[in-house]
Each structure stands twice: as C-alpha cells, then as structure tokens.
Amino acid sequence: MTDRLVINHATVREKMDMTAFVKACSRRGLSMVSIWENEIDRIGKAAAKEVLTQTGSRVFGYNRAGPLLASSATERRQRLDAAKRSIDLALEFDADHVLLFPGGAPEGEKGLDGARGMTEEAVGHLLDHLGDGAARLALEPLHPMLAGDRSSIVSMSHANDICDRLGRNLGIVVDVYHVWWDERLDEEIARAGKHGRIAGFHVNDWLVPTKHTLTDRGMMGDGVIDLAHLWNAVKRAGYDGPIEVEIFSDDWWARDADAVIDLCIERCASIFGLVMERA
User: Could you tell me which residue ranges the Xylose isomerase-like TIM barrel domain spans (predicted)?
Assistant: First the structure.
C-alpha cells in the first residue's frame, strides 16, 4: 500500500459510489482517499465507515464545510451551523483536513470586500469550533474566474494573509488548476511552507482551450501546467504529504471509472516519479 498518491472521489463520482470508489482505490494499493459529504449521504454513514474499515483506508481530505456566505445574518448563522456539523462529521471519519468552501458574494453585493470580510469572520468561528482537534481546516484558493460565485479567496497570497491573522489549525490546499497562473506562486508556496501550512497538493491540468470554468479540467499531462515544477516547489517548502488527483471533467466522468483511475496512477508515476505498489 502507498500513501504517496490519493484519488479524490470527485474524479470518478459519476460512475462510482463511495463504496465502489474506496474499494477500487484499495485494490490499486492506495491507502488513503479524499471523500465528499454528499457521497456519504448517498450510501449512509454506516456503510461509508464500513467500507473504510474493511479496506483499511484512511481519509485524507474531507469535502467540505460550506457554503458560508449569505445576505442575511440569520442565513449566515444557519450556514455556519451546517458547516460546524460537517466538521464534526469529518472528525468522526478521522480526516486529515477539512476543505472550506466559502461560496460566492451574497446576492445584491457589489465587489468582494464584503465577501472577504464575511469569509474571514466565518473561518474564525469554525476554528473556534474545531478547537485543538486532530484535523485541520484548509483554505483552497480558487481561480479568479470563480471569485463571483464560488470564493473570494483567489490567490495564495490572500490565503497566506488569512492564515497569518487567524493562525491555529488552518492550512492551505494548493490546487494547481486554480493557482498555476500566479507569477508569485513559488514565493507564496515557500511562505506557506515556512509556517507548515500546506495541507494538500491537488493535481489535474489546464486545457487550451478550456470549455467550462468548473467541469473541463484536464488529465495530468494533457494541458499547459508545469506540474513537475509545482510538485518540486511544494516539496522544497517542506510538504511531505501525498499528491491528490482531483479532476472535475464532463469528459472524464463519461469514461470508464476504473480506466480513469488507472490512467491517473500512470500519469502521476510518469510526471512525478511515484513508485506504486499493488496491494
């Protein structure tokens, strides 16, 4: 078994439920998986825990706590309470980290100042709820094209600034799809690594042309991202965790899920030099 590579369930979610997905990863010698709360809901919490126990699989990333933002204080409190329940469930599953999903600017808002302030306030409350738990909360800077409807955190520098202010038990997931374009990326990765903040490293690729902002990510090696360079950058920064494949793609979702997982492993072995061992 290896803990150097993780597949995120989103990569094959259209063809595999959580039970089939965890078993497929285990058959290929992958000791960890990254999971989604809505997929737990599909099969039930008991069945989700059972397949993890049966295969000896551990949860790396837990998706997700959020959305957090809303126009009214009442709805923001409701969303914050729901996010706290998600964090509690992630702790039940012994997740390494919990991805935070702020959501976009509330209806009627102009600009991002309000969304940024509400996001940081909500993250602070969630950190208070987490306390000194075994898991970390993780910010994931998204691509700027998603600032309006998904998250106001769209750069590593902004994520680092939030971590500077909020500190404890807060990390950053580096998803190459979202941050590869940033001329300050190496500098900000090093900054995050200096403080031990890098919680995960997500890989995929940026296709040219890109047809959809959410569901046209590429298989590693099919696009223009210098993946090996970014992997070396996070390693130089002190990250010693796994590579995680997360591909949102209508194209790849339409294909045979087992074949997609096999190709993910093959591409990661080729690009990143990972040596995989079958169970």
Answer: 37-257
Backbone CA torsion sign across 213, 99, 204, 155: positive
Q: How many domains does the chain divide into? A: 1
- pTM over 0.70? The answer is yes
SS3 string of 134-196? CCEEEECCCCHHHCCCCCCCCCHHHHHHHHHHHCCCEEEEEEHHHHCCCCCHHHHHHHHHHCC
Domain interval for residue 267: 5-272
pLDDT digits (tens, 9 = 90+) for 66-116: 999 999 999 999 999 999 999 999 999 999 999 999 999 999 999 999 999
Q: Is residue 278 part of a domain?
A: no
Q: Name the band, by pLDDT with cuts 50, 70 and 90, for residue 275.
A: low
